[in-house]
Design goal:
With about 750 residues, the protein is an alpha/beta fold. It is about 40% helix and about 15% strand. The chain is built from 23 helices and 18 strands. The chain has a seven-stranded mixed sheet, sandwiched between helices. It starts with about 30 loop residues before the first helix and ends with a helix. Bound molecules: zinc ion. Zinc ion binds near residues 1, 351, 361, 398 and 428.
């Protein structure tokens, strides 16, 4: 769903060396000396197998026709994947679910006043791009799970349509009550825009792609260049995934044939107002018809117009009507049984459905995933037997709302809670730098994997290249020093936006999301131009990064599946959680300082004194000064956690050194439990599906992660009693985590004595 962006890893604190950083030839964490050696040999054999030409062929096959949920080619792809996996001698099957998937019946955006313009809402076929002309099979541009609506109202431009933008509108004295808002894509997941607009009383929402974000401001547009052309529009889901992902009709349970389903009227994740996406070709007549104040400087995009906010005189008619049908999902599941620990599962997935042809999203991740499976099947023929069971998934229905992964994981929740060791996700891939986000217990593990993968463009390791990237992009000297001094690169926290969500957020399974990127500035995301022609001209034409992705994920899967003991690492985790507590304290202090300053400036008359009397300007509201929060329980819990982590790592290092790790596989169950300890049953305030108390997608950001979300969002939203309660809840979770780690230490010491 989300296009990969190489996110700068922010480094602030420096922590002493956490664990020995193995080199290519060193002993692998979680392995005895002998087992490490044989594992390295199998991994080397594996990494020689992925073939860029085959990845290219996979992409061409899977993206040959539009393949959204419920379409003929979506099913055809699932069946082809199944047949191919079976042909490689693998045990594969399809699991089918039935989910709510609306498709558009009627769409209209019309400017009624001061003059008439009927939006085209159409991406034209381009002669040099052979699949762009497959009109009969393409889903039109729309936002799935917008409610039906037919509204006519004055238009207001709301910039990105995030909460801060509405504060700014208040200062301009502009209300969106009864208006249709037009927001540009960017700065939040798209579903946040209609949600916030409706909260402010708007009756409709139009989202457009400004050329500033992914059009001609960034580079030449398709087909001359990689960026979005005048009529390209971004489809996408506006289902309220931060409330719960998956089938809107079956929250918390699998959407099997006999599942109990909510009536449509009771579904809380649909938008409250109708919403449609449009191109900048269609947006320009609307925006240029707006008057009212000139938009603040930061709000101006790259269209050749003066951006005004409105409201009016532009008046717009917006019409959205969908077919609200159930559609079948086909998840393709491959099982490679474990030889010694079959009841421990290492799971790896990428989705196969797309909005249209989807060469980049998701096939640039799916095609390498296939190649991993082919390579693993070759190793099986040569006698390799993974210790643990490996499950590969090709998910359906990711684009509308992480449907295939969520329904599968909800269906198998009890078994997954017992057996799943980790989940590895990809979702698209580009040329560039390795990006990793996920559970911090896997940070050290994935750093070690990245040290063994060769970057195709520089021939250094992808780890080394990423480290140099982080040094080059560090914002402060302290950040730069942090990158140089720490033995491991920090991984980002995980939010939402792809199929890992149910694993990490709902079930408490350690998860990672990986991909290469950062060198390709594309503007075809969720359009008909995200296809084989575009990808092979502008992204990774030789598929060497496809091969690197196969090598990275395949190595990670093998290394975790074959380990004597799962190499989760807790010192780095405790260090990261301590940083979150510091961030929260700073955030609370800033909220307090800002409120004091605001009220002081109101008393001084600052806002009225500096306002231009010929323009409307409203002073901001007076703020209640926030109380001091008591962070002591969190600090104490982090201390306990650091202490427990240190003891575990010492016991682990001793067992690894003396070879007793070979008898210690019973520790795994305790290690799996450490990740569950990060969840609790009641879940987050007002969104009980999200059980993880360390990571969640932001309620008002969507993709971006909020760490210690219950506390952080309570502070951000000025809910002070809730912030205090949440500190107690998260402190308890961290204490539980420390106890779970202690239990793993005790187990390790018993079996290795
Ligand atoms: Zn995707």
């Amino acid at each position: 769903m989300r296009r990969f962006v190489a996110v700068l890893v922010v480094l602030l604190a420096i922590f002493p060396t956490l664990s020995a950083a193995p080199s290519d030839s060193g002993q692998l964490a979680g392995y005895t000396r002998d087992n490490s050696q044989s594992e390295r040999q199998w991994e080397q054999k594996f990494r020689a197998l992925p073939d860029p030409a085959r990845i290219r062929d996979n992409m061409q096959r899977l993206s040959a026709r539009p393949h959204h949920v419920g379409s003929p080619y979506d099913k055809d792809n699932a069946e082809w994947l199944l047949a191919t996996f079976k042909q490689w001698g693998l045990d594969a099957h399809i699991e089918t679910f039935n989910v709510l998937f609306p498709t558009p019946k009627q769409r209209a955006v019309e400017l009624i006043e001061p003059k008439r313009y009927v939006a085209k809402l159409e991406e034209p076929a381009i002669p040099v791009d052979p699949t762009s002309g497959q009109k009969a099979e393409q889903l039109p541009t729309y936002n799935a799970y917008s409610i039906d609506g037919d509204v006519t109202a004055p238009l207001v431009y709301v910039n990105y349509g995030i909460p801060d933008d509405y504060d700014q509108l208040d200062r301009l004295g502009i209300s969106v009550k009864g208006a249709i808002v037009i927001a540009r894509y960017g700065h939040s997941w798209r579903g946040i825009k209609p949600k916030v607009a409706a909260e402010h009383g708007a009756v409709g929402c139009i989202i457009y792609s400004d050329p500033h974000e992914d059009g001609y401001f960034e580079g030449d547009v398709f087909p001359k260049g990689a960026l979005r052309n005048e009529w390209g529009a971004q489809r996408g889901s506006v289902d309220d995934i931060p409330l719960y992902p998956g089938d809107p009709l079956t929250p918390g349970v699998g959407a099997t044939a006999d599942a109990k389903r909510l009536p449509l009227a009771e579904v809380k994740t649909l938008t409250k107002i109708p919403v449609l996406p449009i191109s900048y070709g269609d947006a320009q007549p609307l925006l240029s018809a707006l008057e009212g104040p000139v938009a603040p400087e930061a709000w101006r995009g790259s269209l050749p117009i003066t951006y005004h906010v409105g409201p009016g005189p532009a008046k717009v008619h917006l019409l959205v009507k969908s077919n609200w049908d159930l559609k079948p999902l086909n998840d393709v599941i491959v099982t490679i049984p474990g030889s010694e620990l079959p009841n421990e599962w290492v799971i790896r997935g990428n989705h196969h459905d797309a909005w249209v042809n989807g060469a980049q999203d998701p096939i640039s991740g799916m095609a390498p995933e296939m190649e991993e499976l082919r390579a693993l099947s070759e190793l099986l023929k040569q006698g390799w037997r993974p210790k643990r069971t490996i499950i590969y998934a090709a998910w359906d229905g990711e684009e509308p709302g992480l449907l295939g992964s969520t329904e599968w994981a909800e269906t198998h929740a009890d078994e997954l809670r017992q057996k799943a060791v980790a989940y590895f996700n990809t979702d698209g891939n580009d040329r560039g730098f390795l990006g990793v986000e996920g559970s911090h217990s896997l940070e050290s593990f994935i750093n070690d994997v990245a040290r063994d993968i060769t970057d195709p463009e520089t021939n250094t390791s992808v780890w080394e290249r990423r480290k140099l990237y982080d040094i080059s992009n560090a914002k402060t000297d302290e950040d730069r020093k942090g990158v140089r001094d720490r033995s491991q690169l920090r991984i980002e926290a995980i939010g939402s936006g792809s199929d890992y969500t149910v694993f990490v957020d709902h079930l408490g399974i350690a998860s990672l999301n990986l991909g290469y990127g950062g060198e390709v500035d594309g503007g075809i995301y969720h359009s008909i131009y995200d296809d084989f022609c575009w990808y092979t001209h502008f992204d990774d034409p030789t598929f060497v990064y496809g091969r690197a992705l196969s090598q990275t994920l395949g190595t990670a899967v093998m290394r975790l599946a074959d380990a004597d003991v799962v190499p989760l690492e807790f010192n780095g985790m405790a260090d990261t959680y301590a940083r979150y507590v510091d961030e929260l304290e700073k955030l609370a202090k800033k909220k307090r300082d800002d409120a004091i300053e605001r009220d002081r400036e109101l008393d001084e008359g600052v806002f009225t004194a500096v306002a231009d009397p010929t323009k409307k300007s409203v002073p901001p509201p007076r703020l209640v000064i926030p109380p001091y929060l008591n962070f002591a329980p969190l600090h104490n819990a982090v201390d306990t956690l650091k202490n427990s982590a240190g003891k575990y790592q010492a016991a682990f290092a001793a067992a690894q050194a003396d070879g007793s790790l070979a008898k210690a596989s019973a520790v795994d169950a305790k290690l799996i439990a450490t990740e569950h300890a990060l969840t609790n049953n009641q879940g987050l305030p007002e969104r009980p599906w999200f059980k993880n108390q360390l990571y969640a997608p932001g309620f008002y950001t969507g993709y971006a992660a909020k760490t210690m979300p219950a506390i952080r969002e309570a502070i951000e939203q000025d809910k002070w009693p809730l912030a205090d309660q949440s500190i107690a809840v998260v402190a308890k979770v961290l204490q539980n985590e420390a106890a779970a780690i202690d239990s793993a230490t005790a187990e390790l010491e018993t079996v290795t004595k």
